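User:
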Amino acid sequence: MNLSQHFGRRVIAVRHPWHQLGAIRHSFMESGRELLDSGHRSGTMADVAKKIREHVGVEGGYHIIPKSRDGLLKFQPKQDELPNRSMLDSQTTAQVLLETDALLRQRFVYGRGLLRMGRIIEELDLLAVWICHLHIHLPNLPEGVPLPYTFITMLVDHAHFLQDKFIADADVSLSGHVSYTDNNFMEVTAYVRQSGMLLAKGIFVVEARDAINNGPAPVNPLVPANELEESLHQEAQKRHQERAKALYRLESQQPTKEEQQLMYELFTRTKGDDGPSPSDMTTLPPNSRWMSTWRRRTLMHPFPENRNESNTIFGGFIIRKAIEISYMTASLYSNQRCMIRFIADVTFAHSIPVHSYIKLKAYVVFTHENYIQLLTVVNAIDGNSFTELKCNVLHLTYSCSKAVPEILPRSYHEALWYLTGRRYFNRFRESVSHDMDNGSAVETNGAKKDN
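Assistant: Predicted structure:
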């Protein structure tokens, strides 16, 4: 029995039957027709970036010595001073004008005219921060005083992409709202649409910090205002409970008995007809590749233009670069154009100072039919001490038009990575089915507002 047959029986066991990809695209788009909509419009994403700077009182451009925000600490409120907020209070929409702005368009496309999904997720991360700005309401803040908060993306829970449906010369609409709050954390649900079709969805977890990013800051409690918001809130609460139990850290779980058996079966398939010998312990089966030979890495230098309002490297920029190296790795592995379908558990363990270097490493850790699962690690090298720090880990799923060679581990360490990739691939399958089953919502209209 080959591994594909094995997968068909055991590995890809999910709660819902797997449909053809075309049916998934159709169902996913249909589920996004009716969503929470307050009527709030934030303009273009350039307007969003400008509004964020104005809200927090940060000067435009780069300054070697940034303006001090210490004086804003006295305006940080206590939790009991913050009124309740609904999802409509933070819901907004912003545009990426690809149809009319040719100069902007060239920043969002590959040479073959395909949209760069890394750029899309970078903009979506920025919108998530702006949505947090809209959620925070300080009734006692004097007029004209900047918001005494800093917002840091702590986690991208997951993001779905349907890349082949994006059009390079049509405007992209980004929208979202706060879907859950807990002390100083906010979960933001964000959407990407083009020509009225829902083409991507992301779940971000953002931490509220004080004005100088030295400690946590309280956020307004989220209280659902209607049946639709209550339904969305319950889904978000389930995600929060899973994160609190650390269930999403699939890479840290000990192999199950089933996975141990799978590891042994992998070993027997690669030990050769005569068994392992001291000189050569492994034999590569047909149409397969060793994991150890399929990793790509690069070193890059970020600059002040890549920073956020906290004067550290913007999380969306890091995600974009990680997506780009994983895209190249998947394409080289498969010898064909690949499309990103899913990102899960993008952690932000440490902020990256502007003067750092960034080391990116992408590993092919699992394959199934025409799918490739990658693990991408982002480390920062301090530009002064030259010490290295692990900052980000991303788990990405790509699809190809044709079947790809099977990736196989050659050591116990690689086998653990293989199992992690398998777990995240199963999560991708389950999450797509879940979003299709639970994505429908009833339109909620409100008066248009501007900020």
